[in-house]
Design a protein that fits this description.
Layout lengths: L2 H20 L1 E5 L6 H17 L3 E5 L6 H9 L7 E6 H9 L9 E7 L4 E5 L8 E3 L5 H12 L5 H11 L1 E3 L4 H10 L4 E4 L1 H13 L3 E6 L2 E2 L5 E2 L9 H9 L6 H15 L2 E6 L5 H13 L1 H10 L5 E3 L1 H11 L4 H15 L7 H5 L1
Parallel strand pairs: 1-2, 1-3, 6-7
Antiparallel strand pairs: 3-12, 4-12, 4-13, 5-8, 5-9, 10-11
Helix pairs in contact: 2-11, 4-10, 5-6, 5-10, 6-14, 10-14
């Protein structure tokens, strides 16, 4: 081989290596087309404008979307250009399943402080909800039970009331659930803000559905504020209107725990501790949040929600930790096992931490 050919191949190899090194990777723990995948694609396009580098999406699906986060924890986080995109289901699994990942081990780039909205068939009184089961639906199951059953003295009474009033339909995929709601086979559904706009809003416009309730948006002091995108429909507001008092007790505390971890970590970005690119990524995300053009694109698909970035995101996670108590965690596990039929383990290490 000639010297010139060697030089040319060397330049090509260097160029390929440079391009590969320049790319950031978003790890998404689900198949393409899922809600988090779509969100990641939208955000990647906007962040690229302020990074001057490409972002590629790596999908790592698996049962309950755990496999991708475990892979990030065990292997991929050591690549300084790799960012984990986690969602609310990962937050729920962190509370009640034996997973490898641990949010305490990472630096937060930032997150979008989102909510989940529940819809119902128009004019249905929802005294006998028909709802799709699943670990991601646990906060809805708690909220439905509280709304229908009102104040109770014991967790056992809530479990009994859930079993007698709620039809909990097992085995439905997301697509099957949405079709069943459109047909009226299910009278209740729930979606993240982007999916609600896509799948439920058209039914509301046609008069076939309406907003049932939402869970509220987590605040720095641990309270949940009304969602300005769906005002007046927060769970606590509707509960007080129906039962004449604020919800309280162990069952409600478990609800606050699981809804806060799911919704407060619904769309979050993580890198390894001491990642040298963390500040660069945080600054790019701040530019997205401060760009009216970028935010207009995101609001159209998701709604008007706040970005929490860098140190503020770390504080946001510490607020979530305050919901973990021995009683709230044990109640969550008990209700999962006895009412919802979900495998759930009591992670005492979360209390000790």
């Amino acid at each position: 081989m000639t010297k010139s050919k060697n030089l040319l191949l060397g330049l090509i190899a260097t160029s390929v290596f440079t391009v590969a090194q320049a790319e950031y990777t978003f790890v998404v723990p689900q198949k393409p087309g899922g809600g988090t995948s779509v969100w990641a694609e939208i955000v990647a396009i906007e962040m690229e404008k302020y990074l001057d580098e490409d972002i590629v999406i790596q999908h790592i699906p698996g049962a309950r979307d755990i496999a991708g986060f475990n892979e990030f924890h065990n292997k991929l986080q050591h690549d300084d250009k790799t960012i984990m995109i986690s969602h609310g289901g990962n937050g729920v699994s962190f509370l009640q399943e034996n997973v490898d990942y641990n949010y305490n081990d990472y630096t937060s780039v930032g997150l979008m402080n989102l909510n989940i909205i529940a819809g119902k068939r128009t004019e249905d009184d929802m005294k006998n909800p028909r709802f799709s089961a699943g670990s991601g639906m646990v906060p809805e199951a708690f909220a439905i039970t509280l709304l229908n059953c009102g104040p109770k003295d014991t967790v056992a009474e809530y479990i009994s009331c859930f079993k007698s009033t709620v039809t909990w339909v097992y085995g439905m995929s997301g697509g099957e659930r949405r079709l069943a709601f459109r047909r009226g086979e299910l009278n209740g559904t729930r979606e993240n803000p982007a999916a609600f706009k896509k799948h439920v809003a058209p039914l509301i416009e046609s008069g076939d559905a309406e907003v049932w309730f939402h869970h509220g948006v987590l605040q720095p002091d641990g309270t949940h504020a009304d969602d300005a995108n769906y005002p007046g429909m927060q769970f606590e507001t509707l509960y007080e209107q129906r039962w004449g008092e604020a919800p309280s007790g162990d069952f409600y505390d478990a609800y606050k725990l699981v809804k806060s971890f799911r919704d407060g970590l619904q769309k979050a970005m993580w890198v390894s501790k001491d990642n040298p690119n963390a500040e660069v990524l945080q600054n790019a995300l701040r530019q997205v949040a401060n760009s009216e053009e970028s935010m207009a694109v995101i609001r159209e698909k998701v709604g008007d929600y706040e970005w929490i970035i860098g140190d503020d995101a770390e504080e946001h996670f510490q607020t979530l930790i305050t919901f973990i108590t021995e009683n709230s965690l044990q109640t969550l596990v008990t209700v999962n096992q006895q009412a919802f039929g979900l495998d759930s383990v009591y992670k005492v290490e979360l209390i000790n931490d």
